[in-house]
Write a structure and sequence with these properties.
single chain; about 375 residues; alpha+beta; five-stranded mixed sheet; 9 strands; rod-shaped
């Protein structure tokens, strides 16, 4: 059995023990006070009187909580609520005194009217303050519940906003890659129709993989590398012998969670700023390793240069890299970052660091084929 106080429920045993404790404290206080003035009664009498007084308030406390909830001292009806509570406090206090007098008549030789007179004279002020104490407790509990609810809603709204922003960034990356690939296919149609057809088939396979992919913000590195391999297959057809790729993956990192499509725009950026703009061949290297509690991923190309002003940052390197930085910040805050560094004697490295965390359900993706 439980006692309901507003939106809070408390076990009857604990509730009764609480009010019994209050009754005992006041009984002891009255007994000590009686000893000082020389009008001492039996200890059981003081305990009985106190229990009648406070058990009555124990029975009325749920009513006080209900009235406090119906007429709170807040909002636009603050003055009205205070006036109603003032009348209610007097009415409930008188009800407690009458109920206590009725119970006390059973144990005392005096009449009901005499008990009412004694209860009003001795307990009205205490009862009046008890009502307002219960009212204050209810208002404090309601304020705490409202604050908790608002904080929970604010957290939910912040999470929804973050998911919306991440989804917008992710949606922006896919058309960017798609348009670049279609442009390359359109260019090859005039030069090599068979190669263009092969690229188109590979593109359809990659798009199918995108549609079948997990619809969240994170996937395992193993699955991410499968998607990247499909993309590198397209670029391998496009650049043929000019493009070489090497993948160095620490097996311990394959089941680590990474943002989906995190590697494709970085590799695309490396190719575009390498052999996409410069003559000669290029080597693209992808490496992953674990460093303490972090996952480190590097994408390196050997046929590009980095503006001195862009070293250590992501400025001036296209929508793919800037969106990667934004996605990392939205997902991991300051615990993740991406930066560009020059390689010696030539080349650029894009370095990503993010918290190491394995996916809950490890992907069983196909083996990675060399591009």
């Amino acid at each position: 059995m439980k006692v309901r106080l507003g939106t809070t429920e408390i076990g009857f045993g604990r509730y009764l023990a609480l009010w019994t404790g209050i009754a005992v404290v006041f009984a002891v206080q009255r007994h000590l006070n009686a000893q000082l003035v020389g009008h001492e009664w039996d200890a059981w009498d003081y305990l009985r009187w106190s229990m009648i007084q406070w058990y009555t308030w124990a029975a009325l406390a749920p009513l006080v909580f209900r009235l406090a909830a119906l007429y709170p001292r807040q909002g636009e009806f603050r003055i009205r609520g205070l006036g109603v509570q003032l009348l209610a406090s007097v009415a409930v206090t008188m009800l407690a005194l009458l109920a206590g007098a009725a119970v006390s008549t059973v144990f005392e030789p005096s009449s009901f009217l005499e008990q009412v007179r004694q209860f009003v004279g001795q307990h009205f002020a205490t009862g009046f303050l008890t009502y307002w104490a219960l009212f204050a407790i209810q208002q404090a509990m309601a304020f705490h519940e409202e604050k908790t609810r608002r904080e929970r809603e604010a957290d939910q709204l912040a999470a929804e906003l973050a998911r919306s922003r991440l989804q917008a960034l992710k949606s922006q990356l896919q058309p960017h890659f798609l348009f670049n690939t279609l442009h390359a296919i359109a260019t090859l149609l005039k030069e090599d129709a068979l190669t263009a057809e092969d690229m188109l088939l590979r593109l359809s396979e990659l798009l199918r993989a995108f549609l079948e992919d997990y619809d969240g913000q994170e996937i395992s590195l193993r699955r991410e590398l499968v998607l990247l391999d499909l993309y590198l297959g397209i670029q391998g057809v496009r650049f043929k012998d000019r493009l070489t790729t090497r993948v160095y993956i620490d097996p311990a990192t394959l089941d680590c969670a990474v943002p989906s499509l995190i590697l494709q725009p970085i590799v695309e950026n490396a190719i575009r700023h390498g052999i996409g703009e410069r003559v000669g061949a290029d080597l693209i290297e992808i490496e992953s390793r674990r460093e303490g509690g972090n996952l480190c991923i590097e994408v390196r190309n050997r046929n590009s240069v980095l503006d001195e002003n862009a070293r250590g940052s992501t400025r001036g390197h296209g929508i793919g890299l800037s969106n990667t930085a934004l996605r990392l910040h939205e997902l991991y805050g300051d615990a993740a970052h991406v930066r560009l560094d020059m390689l010696w004697p030539q080349g650029v490295a894009c370095r990503i660091q993010l918290p190491f965390r394995e996916t809950e359900d490890a992907d069983e993706g196909p083996e990675i084929a060399s591009a």
